[in-house]
Fold:
Amino acid sequence: MKNAQQIIEDLKEMSDPEYTSKMSYFGINSTTALGIRNSKLKLYAKTIGRNQALAEELWNINIHEAKLLAISLMKPKAVTPEAAEKWVSGLYSWDICDGLCMKILSRTAFALEKAVEWTEREPEFEKRSGFATMIGIILNKKTPNSTIEGFFPILEREAWDERNFVKKAVNWVLRQAGKRDLELNSKAIVYAEKIHAQKTKSARWIASDALRELRSEVIRERLEKKEKRRADKESALFTTNPD
Structure:
């Protein structure tokens, strides 16, 4: 297996300095970037495999793609709260924040506790990390609706924050929660209306954008079909086979 230094040499060979301008275009902090497409990084990560020790070593290297690669190598169960705190406090770009929180931190035993805690932080990316972790929790099919419902008051509380990467994250969680099923869709709409009533510029944008999607016919039809499939599956379990 290659060590961290050998991996860095490989990353440098894959680099494309011109691609960093595209990264910047999408709001990615490319100050320390080599310029490597995610598709290449993902393929390279598969040749290495999960390795927590190596991942943590790569994370500590001041190269953007080294951190992105580290995320692909991490094992959620091996991450400690102390390590998570250290990583979150050093976040500087939305892509690393979202990747770390959605793919890794949301799958830890302390995910829910930290997600709530981080939304109260002042630094922009630490605060975003709380909402990005919530997204990972929402996407987990095993997460009960009652857990997700607990996110709504937090979204309402933080909707005032006009910083770009915070307000977009609040909006993201609101929309994602509301697209999970019909029950959560109705509750998300109620909270979106509450947020809109705050009348701050950020709150109005968060709510208006979310309501436009959550009330759309496309989402409604998708959720109704999903509910019908669930009901049909449950019904089939109780149907006696006449044969």
About this structure: Residues 1-74 form one domain. The mean pLDDT is 96. The radius of gyration is 20 Å. Residues 217-237 form the longest helix (21 residues).
